[in-house]
Amino acid sequence: MNAVIKTTNLTKAYGKHKAVDRLQLNVLEGQIYGFLGQNGAGKTTTIRMLLGLIQPTEGQIEIFGELLRKRQMDILRRVGSIVEFSGFYGNLTAKENLMINAKLMGVHTRNAVMEALEIAGLEQESGKLVGKYSLGMKQRLGIARAILHHPELLILDEPTNGLDPVGIAEIRRLIQTLAVERKVTILISSHILHEIELLAERIGIIHEGKLLEEIDMDILKSRNRKYVEFQVSNPNSAAMLIEQHYGINGYEVLNEGVIRLYTHLGQQGKLNRLFVEHGIEVSRIAESETRLEDYFVRLTGGVPHV
Ligand code: ATP
After folding, report:
1. Is the CB of 14 under 6 A from ligand 1?
2. Atom 10 of ligand 1, residue of closest alpha carbon
3. Where do the domains of the chain lie, and which CATH numbers do they carry?
4. For strand 258-261 and strand 226-232, is the pairing parallel, antiparallel, or unpaired?
5. pLDDT tens figures, 140-184
6. Structure pTM?
7. What is the rounded distance in angstroms from the CA atom of residue 16 to the CA atom of residue 243?
8. Each residue of 36-62: pLDDT tens digit?
9. 191: CA distance to ligand 1 center in Å?
10. 40 lines ligand 1 (CB under 6 A)
11. Which of 100, 104, 116, 149 could cross-link to 144 by cystine, CB 3.0-4.6 Å?
């Protein structure tokens, strides 16, 4: 697969502070790429550089195999994006807004506006004033505008920010439709792990301006480990007991009185009895598996914003 976006040592410094620090991104053709990071990690700064809105301090950006700095106009014609504010006229309908945008963008295809509204699920609402749209509808309208010219690459900066679960699910469906039906390569930034977990085929994790890892979700999922957690009154004694009685050492003691075992799944009853017989109270037993959240915390050493 070809890289649609490839950055080499991409850096943006504001004074001494490096908002983005030697980033090496590789977004492959046809993929949904989740660009994940906490607030202030450097996602928007990166995206603004990818769109030519700000200039890198160092490093280079290739999009569609060409240097952005040399061929910016030609490249950006093939890219759609939403970054920050929507900039729609509230006193015009969605259709009128998109017609104005289509004209400005030089899109003259007759059905482009209605097609974009349809794919965004706004066909029925096309005659409604944008001022009366919900935030979720405005975000979908933003995506409709971004696809008017049939871009091959779509760059979306936190498109689900501020939306309720229904709004988030609608955006997710729209992104999946665009990837499948229009074969668009999509880079979506987010600080919501679960969102990215459901959508992305590949993720890049940025933290304090640095790319900590870039990995395929398939590989990440295959590394997921099942575990059982016991919430106990004294996790350190519980750990000692399972080591002494059953030779178990595949465990972790977590905060808030939780001991997590990666082996001996299915033997919760036996272990529960052991704890209780030794005066340890057990208030919760739950089976689960490691997820993106665990991975993220391990990499960044911090609790993600979810
Ligand atoms: P958020 O989700 O909060 O937007 P982000 O990952 O998009 O976070 P950025 O907006 O890229 O983060 O910001 C990264 C860092 O760069 C932050 O520390 C921010 O304060 C700083 N920064 C961004 N733009 C500027 C600027 N124009 N001048 C100075 N510092 C800036």
Report:
1. yes
2. 44
3. 3-219 (3.40.50.300), 225-289 (3.30.70.100)
4. antiparallel
5. 999 999 999 999 999 999 998 888 888 899 899 999 999 999 899
6. 0.81
7. 50
8. 998 889 999 999 999 999 999 999 999
9. 14
10. yes
11. 116
